[in-house]
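Hi all, long-time lurker, first post. I run a small reading group and we've been trying to get comfortable going from sequence to structure in the token notation. Rather than ask abstract questions, I figured I'd post a concrete chain and ask someone more experienced to write out its structure so we can walk through it together at our next meeting. Sequence below, copied exactly:
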Amino acid sequence: MLRGFTLRGLFRSVSCLGVLVMALVVSVDVTPEAVEMLLTRGKGEKDVWIANVFYSCRQGYAFAMVRNGVPEEGAENYDVVETEQLRVHVSKEMKFENDLPKIVVFPRKTGKRDVGVPNVVN
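-- Answer (accepted) --
Happy to help. Here is the structure in token form:
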């Protein structure tokens, strides 16, 4: 028999554990080419965010755009992930394949190159 064990204590422990799991910050995979483009485009600015705006590449795949700076609205709805060279603001509402946003450079239909995330799950 466990001393001091109660059902209420068990629920309290599970609730605290659930809060800790929800508070975990996601990680981000950023290609070196994307880091270079973001730092150049942002004139050395380290903050970037994944926008809920999608552009297509030449092959027709949709990429969530990565913008320089911090989110214009609702910063409290973003997790901040520190990488070696960037602070990436990731929306808590966005879902990604394998729970890991992959930031890459891709060719847009216009022929220009841009930075985006190909693995957003709708």
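A couple of things your group might point at:
Strands lie at 29-30, 47-56, 62-68, 78-82, 87-91, 95-96, 102-107, 113-117, 120-121.
Confidence is low (pLDDT under 50) at residues 10-25.
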